[in-house]
Amino acid sequence: MNSQKTLPEVGGRPYHSEHPLIFTLILTILYGLIYLPDYLNLDKAIFQNLTPFGSIFFEFITRFVLSGLLWIVFVPYYIYLRNGFSIYRIGQSIRLHSSYISKKVFIFGIFLSLSFFLIVMGFAVILGVFTPDFYLLYSPEYENGLGWFIFIFALIPGIWEEIAFRGFIFSFLQTEYSARKAMIYNGALFSLFHTFNYFLLGQELTSVVLTSIAAFPVGFALAYLVFKTESLLPAIMIHYTIDVTLFISGFIFTLTESDSSIIFTLLALVVLPPLMILFFTQRFGNKSTK
User: Rg (Cα) of the chain, in Å, rounded?
Assistant: First the structure.
């Protein structure tokens, strides 16, 4: 199935065919604004004496709701519904309709996710950085005993970033560019999106730069995964697994400035995700990216 044929037309031509890259750039910037409540400290402005859990929960709810409003309300209405497109056609265009979720792609998503996690664990054991302290999931010493909430928090990037970048944005780019170019632009926009961690979340600049650089090949690989499987589901599953692995790295890996820690970080958490996705996805089907 080809999502390029499911997008609405205005005046006899695709709605965003003239400037798809600018259009998706604007969407990326709008998506980055979901961090505004954190930047403005709205939790403290609205509520007094919030508990640690209350603060984290407020952050989760605002990001999740704002993402939902953008990607399942604003974008579908502005691009699709007002042009007479049904929910069915929207699901088709972003490859998330039930017709795009087969048993095969579901099993592949599980296989890909488990393979990534187990390979990372294997590298950690070999390099001597695997020192699991799972008690920190509920210990007051780690995030005020809220370490377990990372498994819920990872749903935000796992679900919404995939619906955004590999769903809508990738489909929009494909209306004008070849699959390969669309994947490259998708990776670039995904990388740009991660710079908001510096501008609105105040994360350390070096960390944000490294994360943004790493996000490019991951975004490219995830777009390739969606293109080859013709489904958004495996991308959601592996993205969630990658982020959970990164989030829990603080209490299952001992990462210092030693050579083994640096090698592990670069190899398992930066190089492995895109390479593994590309390697296994290449064997899923024979669809050309030209």
Answer: 20
